[in-house]
């Protein structure tokens, strides 16, 4: 699959890894829609554990059948701890934040992830940006703003704690983005994803047990849930599994800041998927925002970069 992507990339003269991250964004967008549908019958923490367990099984199956060596050393364990950032703490804080604030607030705050990733890349990795890159990045953020909040709503009067938790979720996701660039150079991407998501799964299971014990969540399976359960398993394998693997493969070729800007395509694919799968309307403002994102991503692809 990746060989055909790379060969077609040469025809359009795009930077190495571009098709990988665009495909990952498309799968992420579809996964958001599938997750939204599954949440109608499956509680959040239970769904999170099912999806992560599915992706962990996906990765370890590849490791076993391809005979990929897993180095049993202290350095491997240290690399696995990044899974506590993403999907670990990022997903947990995002979920609690969404429970305390509005969906429009949460999605609006999430649009700051590219800017936050750029700031952290500049501060921690000492990555330098020219004015063209910064301008295109801001254009992409504006486009995301129109896609995720098409009615023009932004920060409203809701719980400030919920908004802060969503901000922390974005921060942890950005921190993972800049650490992944170094980690993927030291360990096979499939092994890296398998151990990091295994660590995150342990954290999610602990949180699920705590939620059941405190009465925050309960789950009783019925035959009517089979459809959503299969959707949860499939979205975990593809959304948390395949898409994450494509992301780690792209990390080898593109810096974290540029990757975060390509991922602004995720809500575009999500809106299109919601239109076809959930029957949601596509507004003119969303089309305008999507056009801005595509324009920004096209411009970013034309800029030179060093990895």
TrEMBL record:
<dbReference type="InterPro" id="IPR037185">
    <property type="entry name" value="EmrE-like"/>
</dbReference>
<keyword id="KW-0472">Membrane</keyword>
<dbReference type="GO" id="GO:0005886">
    <property type="term" value="C:plasma membrane"/>
</dbReference>
<keyword id="KW-1003">Cell membrane</keyword>
<feature type="transmembrane region" description="Helical">
    <location>
        <begin position="20"/>
        <end position="39"/>
    </location>
</feature>
<feature type="transmembrane region" description="Helical">
    <location>
        <begin position="160"/>
        <end position="178"/>
    </location>
</feature>
<feature type="domain" description="EamA">
    <location>
        <begin position="161"/>
        <end position="301"/>
    </location>
</feature>
<dbReference type="InterPro" id="IPR050638">
    <property type="entry name" value="AA-Vitamin_Transporters"/>
</dbReference>
<feature type="transmembrane region" description="Helical">
    <location>
        <begin position="284"/>
        <end position="303"/>
    </location>
</feature>
<dbReference type="InterPro" id="IPR000620">
    <property type="entry name" value="EamA_dom"/>
</dbReference>
<comment type="similarity">
    <text>Belongs to the EamA transporter family.</text>
</comment>
<protein>
    <recommendedName>
        <fullName>EamA domain-containing protein</fullName>
    </recommendedName>
</protein>
<feature type="transmembrane region" description="Helical">
    <location>
        <begin position="88"/>
        <end position="108"/>
    </location>
</feature>
<feature type="transmembrane region" description="Helical">
    <location>
        <begin position="226"/>
        <end position="247"/>
    </location>
</feature>
<keyword id="KW-0812">Transmembrane</keyword>
<feature type="transmembrane region" description="Helical">
    <location>
        <begin position="190"/>
        <end position="214"/>
    </location>
</feature>
<feature type="transmembrane region" description="Helical">
    <location>
        <begin position="259"/>
        <end position="278"/>
    </location>
</feature>
<feature type="domain" description="EamA">
    <location>
        <begin position="18"/>
        <end position="148"/>
    </location>
</feature>
<feature type="transmembrane region" description="Helical">
    <location>
        <begin position="46"/>
        <end position="68"/>
    </location>
</feature>
<keyword id="KW-1133">Transmembrane helix</keyword>
<dbReference type="Pfam" id="PF00892">
    <property type="entry name" value="EamA"/>
</dbReference>
<feature type="transmembrane region" description="Helical">
    <location>
        <begin position="129"/>
        <end position="148"/>
    </location>
</feature>
